[in-house]
Design brief:
By secondary structure, the chain is an alpha/beta fold. It folds into two domains: 26-53 and 289-385, Alpha-Beta Complex (Aspartate Aminotransferase, domain 1); 69-287, Type I PLP-dependent aspartate aminotransferase-like (Major domain) (Aspartate Aminotransferase, domain 2, 3-Layer(aba) Sandwich), CATH 3.40.640.10. The chain contains 15 helices and 13 strands. The chain has helices at 4-15, 55-68, 76-80, 83-96, 107-118, 133-141, 154-163, 186-195, 218-221, 251-260, 262-265, 272-287, 290-309, 328-340, 370-385, and strands at 32-35, 38-42, 100-104, 124-128, 145-149, 169-174, 199-203, 231-235, 245-249, 320-326, 343-344, 346-348, 358-363. The chain binds pyridoxal-5'-phosphate.
Length: 388
């Protein structure tokens, strides 16, 4: 017996120029990235504040490992819930103004577990059509009736809410969209949800650390009362520079998830040392606002320079700045030409993004210097003017 899908799917991906391969990197995340002894300026990292190599975050991880070992030894309900996990939960609740915080090994598993645990066949799940694969896939697999609304369309969302007025409804949007960098209109969405007695969840993988006066994310940025958003999902692998995720919610939902969320119950708890590093990263976000300020300055500079060079950007005010190119071939070709000139910018192709919307996804970080950005943009302007 053979699984033909393996051969066929690989063949098809190659024909469509969509076959993906990993490149093994030989350096830490930072301003530079190194492949095959070649150094590139790194415009492809989600380490927006450079915290993956911040000394106090690294020290916290090392000390955590000395005190608690390198592994937690069990799932949280068995024996893996340790003091650093507990302290991180308390810190998160205080920082974000929530009753409950629960830790997960990844944003992917947090999203999947939540959707599957919360929604039954009587419920309705409404998601922005550009939500992350972890949310979409769980929606398809859940028993709930699952509908997508047009990207950032409050009007289309309202139609869906009206059509399902008898059911429990959960609306999910991202705070900052991962491939476009634009932001959800959270104020009108939350108003609408309130009006229609629906729950709202915000996946803030790219908002936390970057947005809001205190770096608390999209809800703070939109000046919303936290309880207008019943579920706030944060990941620690992007601006926080570590890995893992949390779901912030009320005490009752937290208790429910501890009992019924299979991603939580049946997975080994993250190492306590990792929880120590995440705690330290949150303290950096709180006490060293210069990283967030530098990131914002870099974003402003990037947009201004691009405008001057006539490079068309999307409507993003965040660290994620896509350049839409349409065809996968063109996106790949320009990404490769940038590499030859010393810049690492990834080409994002379907199915990660909708067909015919292949793009370069430039991500900015606090560690970029203005000259890095202006040089990248002038090379890019030159490459984009060549017709290929
Ligand atoms: C990265 C990402 C996730 C997944 O988080 P991981 O911790 O990397 O698994 C979930 N949602 C969005 C919007 C993301 O960008």
């Amino acid at each position: 017996m053979a699984f033909e899908i393996v051969t066929q799917a690989i063949e098809q991906r190659k024909q469509q120029q969509l076959f993906r391969q990993r490149r093994c990197q030989f350096s830490a995340q930072g301003r530079w990235i190194e492949f095959d002894r070649q150094r590139y300026l790194n415009f492809s990292s989600n380490d927006y504040l450079g915290l993956s190599h911040h000394p106090s975050v690294i020290e916290a991880w090392i000390k955590g490992a000395r005190d608690f070992g390198v592994g937690s030894g069990g799932s949280p309900l068995v024996s893996g819930f340790q003091r650093p996990h507990y302290q991180l939960e308390l810190q998160l609740c205080e920082w974000q103004g929530r009753e409950g915080a629960l830790l997960f090994n990844s944003g992917f598993s947090a999203n999947q577990g939540l959707i599957k645990a919360l929604l039954t066949k009587h419920d309705v799940l409404l998601q922005d059509k550009l939500n992350h694969a972890s949310l979409m896939e769980a929606g398809v697999q859940s028993e709930a009736s699952f509908k997508r609304f047009k990207h950032n369309s409050v009007q289309h969302l309202e139609q869906h809410l009206v059509n399902a007025s008898n059911a429990n409804r959960l609306v999910i949007t991202e705070g900052v969209f991962s491939m476009d960098g634009d932001q959800a209109p959270l104020s009108p969405i939350s108003q609408l949800c309130k009006q229609h007695d629906s729950w709202l969840m915000v996946d803030d993988a790219h908002g936390v650390g970057c947005l809001g006066d205190q770096g608390r994310g999209s809800i703070e940025h939109a000046h919303l009362p936290v309880n207008d958003v019943q579920i706030h999902m944060l990941t620690f692998g992007k601006a926080l520079g570590v890995s893992g995720a949390t779901i912030l919610c009320n005490q009752e939902l937290k208790d429910y998830l501890v009992n019924f969320d299979k991603s939580y119950v049946y997975s080994t708890a993250m190492p306590a040392a990792q929880a120590c590093a995440i705690s330290a990263a949150i303290e950096v976000v709180k006490n060293e606002p210069q990283f967030q300020a530098q990131l914002l300055a870099n974003i402003t500079f990037f947009k201004k320079q691009a405008l001057e060079l006539g490079i068309t950007l999307g409507g993003s005010d965040t660290a994620i700045q896509p350049i839409l190119l349409g065809s996968s071939e063109r996106a790949l070709a320009i990404s490769q030409q940038l590499q030859q000139r010393g810049y690492w910018v990834s080409a994002i192709r379907p199915p990660t993004v909708p067909s015919n919307t292949a793009r370069l996804r430039i991500t900015l970080s606090s560690h970029h210097q203005q000259q890095d950005i202006s040089q990248l943009l002038s090379v890019l302007a030159e490459l984009l003017s060549n017709k290929i």
